[in-house]
């Protein structure tokens, strides 16, 4: 049996959804059994063209627009704008019509924000204060105020907290922890000086306590606070004959007490 070869044509779609474009096709030389053969085995004089022009009809141009922008003012009457363009609709099956003869959508519109003369009240909070505990869990606070703002006059003043929305009031207190508690040095106040003049000393009790305030030995001894220090280092003065002290009078002898006993003053 002799198999004859003939041309098989597969046509592709147009390159554009509307207007004039081009479409291509695949042309192969095949036998009656469907086998693809070299082009020379077919009659090349009747070989179809691989590409041709195509016309999908008039393109449907439609109005496209963006969302409205922000109002031009923070209070009172202002203007909002948007972009409006006439562009080709790629999906020509939609009944969008044409830009020609169809009213162009507005590019601007008026907007009315909150009245400028109205004192709108809002919550304002200050920075957090220091933690109440040097270590472990403590609390810290901040100021929270209800403030009325007059936008037109650019002024503000504190008002009653009832003027602000209660459901969104910021917290004025929160928990805090600077660092975990470890053993630390504690001390009492200083005692009275042992002497009123001629040098004395005063003392205080220094103790190492852990995070449960129990006596501990885990404190750093290099930073242990002093438990004794000198005081009343100024020299004593001899009372004047009238019983009143004289700051201009100073001792001329090292052992002033013995001189007084010897009645040499």
What would you say about this model in short?
This protein has 265 residues and is mainly β. It has one helix spanning 256-261, and strands spanning 5-11, 20-31, 36-37, 51-55, 61-65, 77-81, 84-88, 108-112, 120-125, 137-141, 144-150, 155-158, 173-177, 184-187, 200-203, 206-209, 228-231. Strands 1, 2, 3 and 4 form a four-stranded antiparallel beta sheet that branches. A three-stranded antiparallel beta sheet has the order 9-11-12, with no helix packed on it. A two-stranded antiparallel ribbon has the order 5-7.
Sheet-strand content, in percent, reads 25-35%
Helix content: under 10%
- From the helix content, strand content and strand pairing, which structural class follows? mainly beta
What's the β-strand tally? 17
Give the distance, in angstroms, between the N- and C-terminal Cα atoms. 159 Å
Mean pLDDT: 79
| Computed CA radius of gyration, to the nearest angstrom | 50 Å
Q: With helices defined by DSSP (H or I, 4 residues minimum), what is the helix count? A: 1
Question: What can you see in these coordinates?
Answer:
It contains one helix and 17 strands. The longest helix is centred in the C-terminal third of the chain and has 6 residues, at 256-261. Helices cover 2% and strands 34% of the residues. The chain is mainly β. The strands form seven sheets. Strands 1, 2, 3 and 4 form a four-stranded antiparallel β-sheet that branches. A three-stranded antiparallel β-sheet has the order 9-11-12, with no helix packed on it. The protein has one helix at 256-261; strands at 5-11, 20-31, 36-37, 51-55, 61-65, 77-81, 84-88, 108-112, 120-125, 137-141, 144-150, 155-158, 173-177, 184-187, 200-203, 206-209, 228-231. Keywords: Repeat, Secreted, Signal. It is found in: Secreted. Its main location: secreted. One of its GO terms (molecular function) is metalloendopeptidase activity. Residues 1-21 form the signal peptide.
